């Protein structure tokens, strides 16, 4: 049993003021495998105070010093590779190969990106006789979800450290152990006392007091829309800056000139990635009426080929859904798809054969639906594809943008001019053409209800900065 029932506050592991704990469940076995502290407001108060005490000194550390710190974190992170992979496979149910190539790598990437960005990042700019300086915003409250335990935390942490802002992190109570390892990495790397504080617990017990704390100057949140909305409302009481990364219902548009086999592989991959638990998943697959039948036949075969099973097995591609609650939500959406008249062409309700224990679902494809159905409008957060047909490219753009979200979008085809033209018309923070790699210097964030602000690399660092204009500095 993994046990870490202390909080990391002011450079030390201390007992939680609550004395309570949270059980952490392995979604592949439904068994408790660990325990962390269930923190409370008193823990939050201590952590915020520690961060506040160190704010001024950390803000004024030379950029080179913060860069060196990030460099040491990169090395420390690499040294804990195996531990991170093991823990994310256990707590998230991420297939072990994905825990390595996706989960571990993403976390690393953000520390490397911040390290690189600091080489050229301009904290000062001269305009005539005047100076503009960008300064660390102050104590930042970070609240993160469970779906990419190191990615979602490290992209905020790397940016805050690069900017010079101390933080209090509240990771998801479903996947808290990756953050515990991060705390150990930071301790080893010499992150100054008070700059990083970890308070484990649930949303109400720790998230709410953190967001409400008067000394927190900024809240960086990743998670669901309803929680994001509550957070924004609370942060508005004393006008805290908010950065929100929320949900998505991203379109995957296949053009008629696409290589169909490649398009099918890419479209299925965009749905099953991370067991469908990705905010940027391309879950609305748009094909022309002309291509529909050929696409569905190949996509059903490809979906049936996807290996669902034990996350510890190296050939597993799709593991369990993270929790019973999320599992039931996915089932509920599949039921809604059926009730609203869409046709199941792969997967469907229930658990895959032989996987009765664990929160496993069947990777599913719906056809004959339209974009107004619940399964096309709401985020399912499971491996469920809704195939929707378009008449022409204007119709494809209309359907793609007919959503409250605007996080990502995917285009697949051959004609460059058509692809670029489409990219300009999609309302989303990210357009990926033909599976092009998303390099770490690209910003990430949403239009519309997918969020406010941008993360990753230098864009992420900007979020943790205030801008000061000093008129007459060079007068
Ligand atoms: P969630 O909103 O339930 O929880 C996210 C975090 O907020 C958790 O740490 C939780 O404990 C905390 N929280 C819950 N209620 C709170 C409250 N009232 N006050 C303060 N904190 C509170 O989301 P989740 O289920 O962990 O994650 C899934 C959702 O996150 C999906 O909707 C997904 O699209 C979204 N997401 C978005 C991105 C992105 O970058 N846009 C990335 C990953 C996940």
TrEMBL record:
<dbReference type="InterPro" id="IPR016161">
    <property type="entry name" value="Ald_DH/histidinol_DH"/>
</dbReference>
<keyword id="KW-0520">NAD</keyword>
<keyword id="KW-0560">Oxidoreductase</keyword>
<dbReference type="InterPro" id="IPR015590">
    <property type="entry name" value="Aldehyde_DH_dom"/>
</dbReference>
<dbReference type="InterPro" id="IPR029510">
    <property type="entry name" value="Ald_DH_CS_GLU"/>
</dbReference>
<feature type="active site">
    <location>
        <position position="245"/>
    </location>
</feature>
<dbReference type="InterPro" id="IPR016163">
    <property type="entry name" value="Ald_DH_C"/>
</dbReference>
<protein>
    <recommendedName>
        <fullName>aldehyde dehydrogenase (NAD(+))</fullName>
        <ecNumber>1.2.1.3</ecNumber>
    </recommendedName>
</protein>
<feature type="domain" description="Aldehyde dehydrogenase">
    <location>
        <begin position="13"/>
        <end position="470"/>
    </location>
</feature>
<dbReference type="InterPro" id="IPR016160">
    <property type="entry name" value="Ald_DH_CS_CYS"/>
</dbReference>
<dbReference type="Pfam" id="PF00171">
    <property type="entry name" value="Aldedh"/>
</dbReference>
<dbReference type="GO" id="GO:0004029">
    <property type="term" value="F:aldehyde dehydrogenase (NAD+) activity"/>
</dbReference>
<comment type="similarity">
    <text>Belongs to the aldehyde dehydrogenase family.</text>
</comment>
<dbReference type="InterPro" id="IPR016162">
    <property type="entry name" value="Ald_DH_N"/>
</dbReference>
